[in-house]
């Protein structure tokens, strides 16, 4: 009986720690996102950001990097870099 209670408490503690770790990771990712947004805007002012738009932007960038790599295109080529910049925000909501 005592072992069952101890096991239950241990499982409960592990789940609680996992939840805390996940929450901390999520908040850290959000803070990094806010910092990147401030750096891109060149402003330290507090602004509202759209997580959905940033998620879309990051997905687009990742997809283009994979695609350009498969096609043998480099982001150091001016035309490729322009397309990358223009298409990064494709489908994102206007701020």
Characterization of the model:
With 95 residues, the protein is mainly alpha-helical. The protein has helices spanning 2-41, 51-71, 78-88. 0% of the residues are buried.
How would you summarize the topology of this molecule?
Blueprint lengths: L1 H40 L9 H21 L6 H11 L7
Helix pairs in contact: 2-3
Low-pLDDT segments: none
- Count up the helices: 3
List the helices and strands in order: HHH
Structural class comes to: mainly alpha
The amount of helix comes to over 70%
Rounded average pLDDT: 84
Total E-strand runs = 0
Gross geometry: extended
What composes the largest sheet?
none
Strand content: under 5%
Terminal Cα span: 58 Å
Return Rg in Å: 21 Å
Q: Characteristics of this structure?
A:
mainly alpha, about 75% helix, 3 helices, about 100 residues
Short note summarizing the structure:
The chain is mostly helical and 95 residues long. It is built from three helices and no strands.
């Amino acid at each position: 009986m005592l072992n069952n209670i101890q096991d239950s408490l241990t499982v409960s503690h592990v789940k609680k720690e996992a939840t805390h770790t996940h929450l901390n990771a999520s908040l850290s990712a959000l803070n990094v996102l806010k910092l990147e947004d401030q750096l891109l805007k060149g402003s330290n002012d507090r602004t509202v950001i759209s997580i959905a738009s940033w998620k879309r932007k990051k997905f687009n960038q990742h997809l283009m990097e994979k695609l350009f790599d498969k096609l043998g295109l480099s982001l150091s080529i001016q035309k490729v870099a322009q397309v990358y910049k223009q298409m990064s925000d494709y489908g994102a909501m206007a701020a």
